[in-house]
């Protein structure tokens, strides 16, 4: 699908009130100043302050880092999926 076609579909769904890209970026930057990234078990285990820091460390070391977004229909199914992934990884990579 070409961008022109994609834009037509988006306009059809959202109407004509699509903000300019620069406006959306500026709004996102403004909102980001109000957000604080919490500490995760991953941050604690790896000793980093952010995922971006971990990715830079991996790149500097020539290591490939994988990332996934997991979000299913309910929190319970998401938690089950994450637990399955964690247990599987522990078995294969002897982590945790």
Describe the structure.
It is a single chain. Among the domains are: 30 residues, no CATH class; 31 residues. The protein contains five helices and no strands. The N and C termini lie far apart (43 Å).
Protein topology:
Elements: H1 3-14, H2 21-32, H3 41-46, H4 51-60, H5 75-93
Summarize the structure.
The chain has helices at 3-14, 21-32, 41-46, 51-60, 75-93. The protein is mainly alpha-helical and 96 residues long.
Largest sheet: none
Strand content: under 5%
**Proportion of helical residues:** 55-70%
Q: Which outline best applies?
A: extended
Low-pLDDT stretches: none
Nearest-integer average pLDDT: 84
Overall radius of gyration: 19 Å
Q: Output the structural class.
A: mainly alpha
Helical segment count: 5
Total strand count, please? 0
Order of helices and strands: HHHHH
Distance between the termini: 43 Å
Key words describing this protein structure:
extended, 61% helix, mainly alpha, 96 residues, single chain
